[in-house]
Every structure is written in structure tokens, then in C-alpha cells.
């Protein structure tokens, strides 16, 4: 792999995590994200599931791109997404049943994630396998990173724990584990993320 390719692949990953972060920059898939981020464990596994689906969908669509007719491309993309979501659904039910009991419904809703369909349409259907892999990895990691930060914030200040271990002795802010508190937490972290990103982007050589 040439140095130029290495830079471009890194840019694809950085783009998904920072510039086009699904939650903090594009504000997509907020409802499922808020529903599963009451604990770090649930948020992490949901994020991992999205990483897997995003990468596999990108790879599958890229591999099939020359054989997909333009008029039926969207139904084909949805079939590909639903197939990989089914795989994740079955794997989580088999290997992490305790987590699956809490987030199983939202795992199935990954089928409707606009970010996954958008990357299949905008990137994977027009690029080769390797760039599509890194694009999917970047977008998936961006979602995972966002969920991890939201989960830590909500579990720490809403329950006083991290992974069930007591951290804060003071009375927690129970509203943060409720849906309204989830939107409040996302708003705070979104503002912080965008402020930090603006400072980073303003630095010479950041792009």
C-alpha cells in the first residue's frame, strides 16, 4: 500500500469519527441511541453491532456494485442491510443474551438506520472493496464512539456507576437515565463535540 493510499484510508476513518459523526454531526439515529445508552455495556454492544453491519454492508454492496441495476438499487441495499442485521441479531441472542434482552429490539431497527443506507448509496456502490471497508469502519466507529461517551455520561451521572461499579457516592441525577434526560445528555455532548472539533479544524494542517 502506498503512502497516498494510507493517508486516504486514514482520512476515511477520521471522516466517520469526526467530520461526519452519525450522532454528533449528522444527528441521525438519535432515538435508538438514547434508548440503549442508559448503561455503558448496552451502548458498547449496540455500537459494535452497528460497526459490524456498516462494514459488512459496505463490503457486500461494493462487491455487487457492477451487477446492481440502478432502478432497483435501493431495495437491493435494504435486503443486504436486513440480511446482515439478522446475522448480528442471531449472534447477540446466542452469545450475549443478557444484553440482547435489553437492546434486541433496537438491534433490529438498525435496518432503518439512514446512515447505513446512505453510505451504501453514496460510497460503497461507487467504490472498490478496500475504500468501502475503511469508509464503513470509520462511520461505524463514529457511531460506537458517540454511544460510548453518551453511555458513560448517563450511567455515571444518572446512576453513579460505570459498568455497574459504584463511582459517585452522591445522589445521582436520575433524570439522565430517562428519555428526556437522554436527549439532554446528547445535546450537551453534541455541543462539546462540535466545539472541540471546531477548535481542531481551525488548527493549521488539521485537514
Structural class: mainly alpha
Name the average pLDDT.
Answer: 91
| Low-confidence regions | 1-6
**Spatial strand sequence of the major β-sheet:** 1-2
What does it look like?
It is a single chain. This protein is mainly alpha-helical. The protein has one domain. It contains 8 helices and 2 strands. A two-stranded antiparallel sheet has the order 1-2. A hairpin with a 2-residue loop joins strand 1 (161-162) and strand 2 (165-166). Helix 3 (40-64) packs across helix 5 (97-108). The chain is globular, with a radius of gyration of 18 Å. The protein starts with a helix and ends in a 6-residue tail after the last helix. 36% of the residues are buried. Mean pLDDT is 91; it is low at 1-6.
Task: Supply database-style keywords.
207 residues, mainly alpha, two-stranded antiparallel ribbon, globular
Provide a quick synopsis of the model.
This protein has 207 residues and is an all-alpha fold. It is 71% helix and 2% strand.
List strands and helices in order, with pairings.
Blueprint: H1 3-19, H2 30-36, H3 40-64, H4 73-95, H5 97-108, H6 114-122, H7 129-159, E1 161-162, E2 165-166, H8 179-201
Antiparallel strand pairs: 1-2
Amino acid at each position: 500500500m502506498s503512502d497516498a493510499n494510507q493517508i486516504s484510508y486514514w482520512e476515511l476513518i477520521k471522516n466517520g469519527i469526526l467530520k461526519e459523526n452519525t450522532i454528533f454531526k449528522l444527528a441521525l439515529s438519535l432515538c435508538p441511541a438514547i434508548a440503549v445508552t442508559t448503561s455503558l455495556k448496552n451502548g458498547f454492544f449496540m455500537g459494535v453491532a452497528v460497526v459490524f453491519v456498516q462494514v459488512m454492508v459496505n463490503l457486500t454492496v461494493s462487491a455487487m456494485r457492477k451487477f446492481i441495476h440502478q432502478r432497483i438499487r435501493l431495495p437491493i441495499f435494504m435486503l443486504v442491510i436486513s440480511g446482515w442485521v439478522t446475522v448480528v441479531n442471531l449472534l447477540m441472542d446466542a452469545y450475549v443474551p443478557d444484553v440482547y434482552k435489553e437492546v434486541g429490539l433496537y438491534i433490529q431497527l438498525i435496518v432503518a438506520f439512514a446512515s447505513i443506507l446512505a453510505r451504501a448509496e453514496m460510497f460503497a456502490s461507487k467504490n472498490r472493496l478496500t475504500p468501502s471497508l475503511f469508509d464503513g469502519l470509520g462511520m461505524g466507529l463514529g457511531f460506537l464512539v458517540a454511544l460510548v461517551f453518551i453511555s458513560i455520561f448517563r450511567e455515571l451521572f444518572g446512576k453513579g456507576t460505570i459498568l455497574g461499579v459504584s463511582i459517585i457516592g452522591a445522589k445521582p441525577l436520575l433524570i439522565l437515565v430517562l428519555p428526556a434526560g437522554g436527549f439532554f445528555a446528547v445535546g450537551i455532548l453534541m455541543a462539546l463535540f462540535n466545539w472541540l472539533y471546531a477548535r481542531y479544524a481551525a488548527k493549521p494542517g488539521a485537514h
